Structures are given as C-alpha cells and as structure tokens.
Amino acid sequence: METNLLKEAGLTDGETKVYLALLELGISTTGPITRKAHVAKSIVYSLLQKLMEKGLVSFIIKEKTKHFQASDPHKIIEFIDEKKKKIEQNKIDIQAILPDLLAKTTSSKKSEATIYYGYKGIRTAYEHVYQKMSNSETIYSMGIPPAQPEEQHLYWKKDHVKRVQTGFKMKLLFNQDTDSKILKDRNAYTDSESRYMPPGIKTPSAFVIFADTVQIILQSPNALCVEIINQDIADSFKAYFEDYWKRSKPFNPK
C-alpha cells in the first residue's frame, strides 16, 4: 500500500523503492541503498538526485563520501502541495494560450461530416454557431424553403433574438415562392438582411454557412441536417452565396 500511495503522489517506482529503503536505513551510502531498494547501481545516483530535487532526500559528506538521508515523511505532503500549485499554474498558462492552440487546430483544416435527424437534430446542429462564431461575424443562409412547421418557424424567430444578443450578423436568401411577410419579419431584426434567391434558382434544401462549417438542411419529406466541417468547403459555399447575393435585389415590401 505504501508503494502504491507514493507512486500516486508522483514518485516513480525506482524513487519509491529508494525513499522507503532510506527511511529504514537512516543515513547511508549508495551501497546499502542499492541492496535494500533492489535497484541497479548504475541508476541509484540518478534516483537519489531526483528525490533531492523533490525535497525528499538530503546528503552530508563524511570523509569525502556522500551519505544520504530520507527527509521527514511530512515532506511528502509539501511535495504534493507544491505539485498541485504547479498544476494549477500550468492550467492557467494553458488557458491563456488556448486561443492560439485553437487557431492552429482550425488552420489544419480538419474534415468531419455528421448527419442529424429530425427537427431537434437540425436545431442541435445549427446551434454550433454559438460555439464557433465570434462577435460581428456573419451567418449565411440560402435556399430557405417557403414553408415549414409552425414549431420550427417559431424556433427561428426566437433564435434571431438570441443571435442579436450575441452580436452575430445574418444574411438570408429565401426561395422565390416564400411569403413576403416572412422576409419582412426577418428584416425587422438587427443585423439581419433577407432577400429572395435570384430568379430561376430554387432548391429543396437550405444551406447554412458559418466559420468552417456548412450545413445542408432538408425539412421535407424527412427532416435532417448534414453538417460538413471543412474550411475549404465552407469557403466554396460562401463564394456561391456571395455570387447569388450580388445577383439578388434588396427586399422591397409591397
């Protein structure tokens, strides 16, 4: 049990054997330590050095020979406390550089694809915008269908309120047969601009583009969302959106 507890405290197997041996030997040279601890003579000095660095062993010189002694076992508590402080400081330091680490992850352009089923699945996928978007960035959506269940329609309206509070902007392109009242409603929200898709373009699925993500959303006959995480693909869909946006006209309620 002693051996296991000391290992859990942060000592290696060899350090544990040497420390326990020294507790029993008292002051000793390396010979008796090696035999008592059952460690190789070639590594005993290294193990003693590491224990001294941890504050668990000290030495004195008698007749030009080093004699080692184990520190009071209370020092183990001090060692654990010091280790805990270092871990906490390391956590703070890592949190400070976390944005840089995440930026490196994004730049690696990793790819991932996931399918979400049902309207709840669509909402789960869409709300990833709140994990990936920064203030003042824009969400792009095109090919939005003219009709959807009332429950889903209300969800989007509530989400616009949340989006405004978060500070995101939004550009939306609706299919041509969408009721103008819907576009008028969406344009009433802060930093939201809705238009009709260019004439002659109608899609059964909608596309949402943000950060490194593209979501292909189909609401009928079966509701599902295909989420693709890839920066190059997201940039490509954004380019398509920008082309359609330039070819569309600002909404003019009649």
What does this structure look like?
The structure is a single chain. The chain has 254 residues and is of the alpha+beta class. The protein folds into two domains: 2-75, Orthogonal Bundle (Arc Repressor Mutant, subunit A); 112-247, Endonuclease Chain A (Endonuclease, Chain A, 2-Layer Sandwich). It is 52% helix and 21% strand. The chain is built from ten helices and nine strands. The chain has helices at residues 2-9, 13-25, 30-37, 41-53, 74-107, 118-126, 129-132, 150-166, 180-187, 231-247; strands spanning 57-62, 65-70, 112-117, 138-144, 169-174, 192-196, 206-210, 213-218, 224-229. The strands form two sheets. It has a seven-stranded mixed beta sheet with strand order 3-9-8-7-4-5-6, with helices on both faces. A hairpin with a 2-residue loop joins strand 1 and strand 2. The longest helix has 34 residues, at 74-107. The radius of gyration is 32 Å and the shape is rod-shaped. The termini are far apart. The mean pLDDT is 88.
Strand content: 15-25%
Ends apart, CA distance between termini: 82 Å
- Which overall shape is indicated by the principal axes computed on the Cα atoms? rod-shaped
The number of helical runs is 10
Under CATH, the homologous superfamily of the largest domain reads Endonuclease Chain A
Give the helices and strands as they follow along the chain. HHHHEEHEHHEHEHEEEEH
Query: Strands of the largest sheet, in order across it?
Result: 3-9-8-7-4-5-6
Give the total of beta strands: 9
Q: In the CATH scheme, what's the topology name of the largest domain?
A: Endonuclease, Chain A
Number of domains: 2
SSE-based structural type:
alpha+beta
Q: Give the C-alpha Rg.
A: 32 Å
Report the sheet with the most strands, covering strand number, pairing sense and barrel closure: 7 strands, mixed
**Average pLDDT for all residues:** 88
Residue stretches low in confidence (pLDDT < 50, at least 5 long) are none
In which range does the helix fraction lie? 40-55%
- Indicate the CATH architecture of the largest domain: 2-Layer Sandwich
CATH class of the largest domain: Alpha Beta
